[in-house]
Design goal:
- By secondary structure, this protein is an alpha+beta fold.
- It folds into two domains: about 30 residues; about 200 residues, no CATH class.
- It is about 20% helix and about 25% strand.
- The chain is globular and about 45 Å long.
């Protein structure tokens, strides 16, 4: 009878391992988002976004680093790179690196809270690899040709948003409604990452993409979100 108990114990252990693996797979980010735990970063497939949309009569200042492109994205006219994944998948990826979301800011006299991360755009280097470009080198003031001050990004996570006025208690991850992933100013709390800037900076930082910093529109790139080393 002892061998039966051992066999049953082994079967239970295998079943538990299978359940754990299934849960890990369920919690893992979907295609387009890669978690590199060894290098402590999340990589997101993206493309260089157009700065001028055909349905608009002007180029609007950059307020988002990344989000859904047109026509799906609500802020597609203000982005640097376009993504085609739900922002919540990036949230999951950062959690797999051990980070805990803070609190997004929105409006005057608010400031984003959360763990600090580094953000880069990885562009093809022409030799089959990639070159990481800091965001300060991607953006500039088109009038002065000067780069913005150094940006500090924090993992805020998104508020939950009701999408049906008749069902106010049924809410979705807000960034999956707007398609906004990384925002520069606290103009929205339906995002995953924000800078430490406030609405005071928004009043005088009217930014655009430095045309020498990124490849041509539509070029595949990687958005790299790097977590700090564990202490």
């Amino acid at each position: 009878m002892k061998w039966i108990a051992v066999a049953l114990g082994l079967l239970a252990a295998v079943a538990a391992a299978d359940r754990g693996a299934a849960q890990d797979k369920k919690d893992a980010p979907k295609g387009g988002v890669t978690v590199d735990e060894a290098r402590r970063c999340v990589l997101v497939d993206a493309k260089v976004a157009p700065r001028k949309l055909p349905n608009l009569d002007q180029v609007y200042p950059v307020e988002l680093i990344a989000g859904w492109g047109a026509p799906k994205g609500k802020k597609a006219h203000e982005i640097v790179v376009a993504i085609d994944v739900d922002p919540s998948e990036v949230h999951k990826g950062l959690e797999k690196l051990g980070l805990k979301a803070g609190k997004p800011a929105r409006g005057e006299n608010t400031r984003a809270e959360g763990p600090v991360v580094n953000v880069f755009i990885e562009v093809p280097d022409g030799a089959g690899g990639g070159k990481r470009v800091p965001l300060e080198k991607v953006l500039w003031d088109p009038k002065t040709k000067k780069a913005p001050p150094k940006m500090t990004f924090v993992f805020t996570g998104s508020v939950l948003t009701a999408t049906d006025p008749n069902k106010p208690d049924e809410k979705k991850y807000g960034a999956d409604v707007t398609g906004s992933l990384i925002v520069l100013f606290p103009v929205s709390d339906e995002v995953v990452l924000q800078t430490a800037w406030t609405m005071k900076e928004e009043k005088f930082l009217k930014l655009d993409v430095n045309p020498d910093a990124l490849p041509k529109e539509g070029t595949p790139v990687k958005l790299v979100i790097e977590a700090p080393e564990k202490k």
